Amino acid sequence: MALRDLVLGETVGVAVTARGDVVQWGDGYDAAARQPEVTLAGKNVSRAVISGGCVYALAAKGDRVWVLPAAKADPTPARSFAPALGRRETVTALEAGDAHLVALTSAGRVFTALTGLAPVTSTEGQLGVPVLLDGSSTAEPNEFYLVHSLAAVDAVQVAAGAHHTLVRSADGAVWSFGENSHGQLGFDYTDATAFVPVPTEVPFDLKYRRRVHAAVDYIAAGANQSFFRVARSDVPAKDLWVSGDGLFGQHGTGRFAHVLGRPSVVRAITDLSEYSEADRALVPIPLRYLSIGPTHVAAAFDNAPDPDHTPAGGHSGRIVSVWGGNESYQLGTGKRNNVAVPVAPLDLAADRSANSRLVLPTVRTRAGVLESTVVAGHLATAVYCRPT
Fold first, then answer.
1. How far is CA 12 from CA 6, 235, 279, 311, in A?
2. Containing domain of residue 163, as a range?
3. pTM greater than the 0.90 cutoff
4. I need a labelling partner for 74 at 20 to 30 A (CA). Which of 5, 289, 332, 334 fits?
């Protein structure tokens, strides 16, 4: 079955079917349920996230977000809400932390919202607006706030960790705000920077020589980590930087560190290369995307397809790397030890004696092109087929 989206929460799983319906399962949804159940039908949903004990689903039209309880026993009915959108403006991306949403619109504007079903009394500054910073009041969840301090920024990507937010602009700059207890905002933790409620630019230009133009072209966040991919003007390879919590090895740098404020390069990803027959030389293998769970990370790459095993209109298989916590065997290595450098998960569907590594093929079917996609969830990793 093809899925538009898949989320593996701590006690609840959520998927969006190819028809745009939301299905849920797990002990946190209904311990007695024997199979996934449809919980939101006929709304043509494209994206789902879990936050604040609720499931949030973005309509494919980008005109609204649906919210429904994660637990089946909660009688609260599903309802929708939306940012104050302009004419022909739509929500193009929706990300979630433990207690907040971040929405990006087609006009390059950024909105944030508190999540849950009850009034909220405090935040860590992850909204980027002056709401609930002094603990003297309450605010209702499921209401979007425009991040006014980013009004002059043409935002093209957003990311959310547990209690922090990242925003990337079209010119390659990054702003971060929220909790910085592990250095996840991209700068050192101090008493003054423990919580940063105002979007603050992460100075990546200071990490390169003056004549080197550096621009961030991809960001990712999860739990208390942040990743930044930087394109450089002097070399074709792109650097992947990481900051935040790495106690389980989720930095991918070979070290186990609880706090990392100044971003460090993940060399194993930056230096990944393959031989190109056309160029007759080693060329970088670009990172396609990251999926970040509470303690581990999964990465997919845009390696060149195998010409002898590539279906028409598809891809023979994108390589996958994983690293970080492995307490529940979520790395798929066949072992249970935590790993502080990127490694390849095993393909258990292949001949185990061959020690085959997992790859993500893309195939053309009667229903269209389906891309295998890897997801890092709560102590678990999954692969599903997503329409492109």
1. 11, 43, 47, 35
2. 91-387
3. yes
4. 5
